[in-house]
Q: What sequence folds into this?
């Protein structure tokens, strides 16, 4: 389930993307407009800044702005930064793979096959929609990505990675 923190992060990025190029937006403006607690928003924007998505300025004309083009920031990327891996099970995660402790055989695990298909479709949609595309209402890219997913039957067995590390 999408966390409240991730929803706030996406709303903040959408607000920054709407700002005219070269202009900053005050935290207080974003917080008031989108009903986000200011202190919580400060933490979120710091996370996004540390990951190179936004930049900040202090002083009279200070505030926040996108560091990268809105078309280069996907919903999937933001969710991974804020909430971690998108995978519903650790055994289907590409970057944070772990064997499920209660699984006897990944190759024949029905749960793994079903959730792997769900995960691939979710990743295709979330990585296929940028902040800019969402603002423009251009959801066609993500829709096409989801439709290009392999057919649901027969499901492809996944092989367990041999040595995966990472957090997202």
A:
């Amino acid at each position: 389930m999408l966390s409240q923190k991730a929803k706030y992060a996406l709303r903040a990025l959408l607000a920054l993307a709407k700002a005219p190029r070269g202009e900053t937006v005050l935290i207080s403006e974003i917080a008031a407009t989108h009903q986000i607690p200011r202190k919580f928003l400060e933490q979120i924007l710091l996370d996004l800044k540390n990951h190179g998505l936004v930049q900040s300025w202090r002083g009279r004309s200070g505030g926040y702005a996108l560091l990268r083009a809105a078309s280069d920031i996907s919903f999937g990327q933001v969710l991974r930064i804020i909430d971690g891996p998108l995978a519903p099970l650790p055994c289907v995660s590409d970057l944070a793979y772990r064997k499920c402790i209660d699984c006897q055989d990944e190759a024949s695990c029905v749960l793994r096959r079903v959730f792997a298909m769900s995960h691939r479709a979710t990743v295709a949609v979330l990585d296929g929609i940028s902040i800019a595309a969402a603002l423009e209402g251009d959801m066609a890219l993500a829709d096409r990505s989801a439709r290009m997913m392999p057919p649901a039957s027969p499901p492809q067995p996944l092989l367990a990675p041999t040595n995966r590390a990472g957090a997202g």
About this structure: The first strand starts at residue 54 and ends at 57. The radius of gyration is 18 Å.
